[in-house]
What we know:
five-stranded antiparallel β-sheet; single chain; 12 helices; three-stranded antiparallel β-sheet; alpha+beta
Amino acid sequence: MNSWLEYKFLSFTVNEWLYTLLIFIITYACMVLIWKFSIKRISNFALRNPTKLGDLIVEVMRSTNQLTFALFSLLFAMHFLELNAKWVTRLDYLSFLVIGIQIARWLSKGITLWAKAKTVATDGTAENAVLTTMLSWIFKTVVWSIALLSILANTGVNITAFVASLGVGGVAVALAVQNILSDLFASLAIGLDKPFVIGDFIIFGDVLGTVERVGLKTTHIRSLSGEQIVCGNTELLKNTIHNYKRMAERRVVFEFRVTYGTKADVVEKIPEIVKQAITSQSETRFDRAHFKGFGLSSLDFEVVYYVLDSSYNIYMDKQQAINLYLMRELESMNVSFAFPTMTLNLSKNAELKMRLPEGALSPSLQ
Length: 366
């Protein structure tokens, strides 16, 4: 029996390997028990004292991969073997690597949960969703960059030279992907400046529609005709954006014309009729109505009023009701709407020539 335990494998006896295995099992079991006990205690505390931070810590701890416990336990147990200084250093490097990656994963998971909770709490509106996504991406990049640099520094890599190399390479990459980065920062500008949110009806250039999604590179807009328009964030912000969803009230200016045969007393009454037509409608505010001037073939009126709702359909309903009111009132007063007309006054010679037979016209007129 003793001879079998003294048998050597990879320079160590079976007895030493069994001792190392026992330490591995005990270490792994203790780490798992401590992990589960910690989750239970924190969960109970979170139930008694509901906080978002407590729930976040519990979710982060539950995301721990048990393979991390196994690797760390194995590396810890191997320290009990009589290894030379070179292998002990390598085991220390590997242990730091495992711990560093796990801490980075914890932080990354926490950032993901924070971003998800933030987006849900704000109903996914553009100014919060885009900003939260951008910050999440930046925080994760910083976390993994610090973890990578720490691991490299621990393994003896010259971080100063490495960072300088990354800086030069970063400039080259930035030049190569400058359009993508431009859209990326444009999405951040949308999140910070908030020119529109999801659900807003916007117009820019020859594009008009409802914002469906604001991404890191593109914005998706559903046009009135039904198709989806995908526009780069940079190109979108280069335009003047008209946001009709944020319009508290709509200013309406319209004109109409009556014929020149209308008497002055009747013309004087028309602005008051227009006022009655507008004030008789709900959600409207009358501003002014004036006999504007003398047109080429009509007497021109200009009217200004406000619809106290941003909806285009409501505005058109009000305008239609006002138009019908004016038509009925002006018809009752025998007032006709004007349309472009032209009167030609011909001289006597022209009238005579027009009455002559076709064959009697002079050669120059033929």
